[in-house]
Amino acid sequence: MTATDVAASRDVVFSGVGKLFRQGEREIHALRDCSLHIRQGEFFSLLGPSGTGKTTLLNLVAGFDRPDQGTVTVGGQPVRRPGPDRAVVFQAPTLYPWMSALDNVAAGLKHARVSRRERKDRATAQLAEVGLTDASSRRPYQLSGGMQQRVGIARALAMRPSVLLMDEPFAALDAYVRQEVQELVVSLWQRHPVTTIFVTHSIEEALLLSTRIGIMSSGRVTHVFDVPFGYPRDVTGVEFNELRREIWGRIEAGVRGEREAGR
Amino acid sequence: MTAPRGGQAAGQLTGPGSATLPGPGRRAPSPAALAARRRPTGLARARHRTGRILLGGIVPVLVLLGWQLVVSAKLFPSALIPAPLTVGETGEIWLGTRHMPVMFYSGHMFSDIGATLVRVLVGFAFASVIGVVLGTAIGVSRLFDGLLSPLFKILGPIPPITWIPVAIVIFGIGQDANFALTFIGAVFPVIAATAVAVSGVGRDLLRAGRMMGDGRAGLIWHVVLPSAFPGIVGGLRLGLGLSWMMAVTSEMLAVHSGLGYTLWNAYNYLDYPAVFAAMIVTGICGLLTDALLLAATAPATRWHAETGVRS
Description:
The complex is a heterodimer of chains A (263) and B (311). Chain A is an alpha/beta fold.
């Protein structure tokens, strides 16, 4: 790899990252010596049971938290603070309730050096891309959960980030709506292949969406699986289910290991 | 509205197999029709508002009737408790629409209201700005909370009325003392409500703002204040009411104009109907300024009202 390649690439790299949370007297090692290399343009899922550090890892890239040990870099630059180059789709939609859907999307462009007119045009186009043209003047509380999350996705994408961070964005949606937004996310990613880090505890969701899957266990990424299938993916496919079983085995082993270590 | 709905019902009755019904009624309602159903028309909104006003009038009218009943039953000497109608007549003299008998307040109602209103508005305006700034500082910063909250917790329980001598000593008898007093009345509830509302803004909303590139000042302006605004308005309404109280009270004790002055003068002349009239006019003025405040802030609080508990 030449020097220009390194400068141009917007890879997300964790090296030797540790993060400690204190809850009163108790210390919780959310991450320990965690290393991971996510390549530019890939759809990477972080998969694992609750409390294994997935969201912590995501918050470090977002800049909401700072690592206690190690470094987190995006495109070679250490992450110091949150910024519009790393857009986040939150677990709860987290839209501004006092603004219309359109204004919410346009709010993400406030710090892009574009005119008010262009902000509005871009927000309109982005809402259309997630299929919400009709809802643009409605406030978040007038939208269903799935629609709110689509506005959240539109807001993130309109910022044209170099990394898109998604923290279990569909966990609260019912199965039908979830499938709809999953398909939307895949087609958006195919059209604009932005580096995506997707946190989920659903193996099936990770397998449906990602190009690679990292399994997390006690504050580390213990295994990384390539997902070699094209889109759209068939959840009943033989290879799909073989991979699902293999991943399930790894996660189970991790949970068992953690339980024995805890004893 | 009625035609398509009726058509639909007919369509359901005859079932999907029937092709005899004319087209328009059987189609799904158009987006425009749906929008119309969601958004009340001007007429419907006016009707709704009239309904609200009528509803709000029921209890005051009952109170008036009860008052008249107490007077008619002669439970108290009529010289001490005037009948509502007597109070109304006194109000007319004060307003200037009735000319006999001539009293010291004849035709002075609007100048009295104006004098008090100016005191209320100036003090309240200062209290709003300073209260929101200080409350926001306390709400967002542990440092300011630690620095300022103890002082406000000491000053808060001191009845605002006790500031009247202090204000007179410092500013002398005059407008400045009045402005200081209406300011003091309003500022503490505004600070307290703002601090509570601001400190309650959710972490995730702040993270969303930071993610979109807001720094500390941008977060306060774009996220914290809009999000806390419904709570801040609650504090402003309390503050406005207290400004009225302070204005009228200080006029009763130390100032020679305004509603409170007329009230106290009337009391000294044993003119109890005028005392009641001044009280009622003060209350109505408070109601009207509160309604104005609500109307002015409604666009920025509607999102909150529509997600609230009130059914």
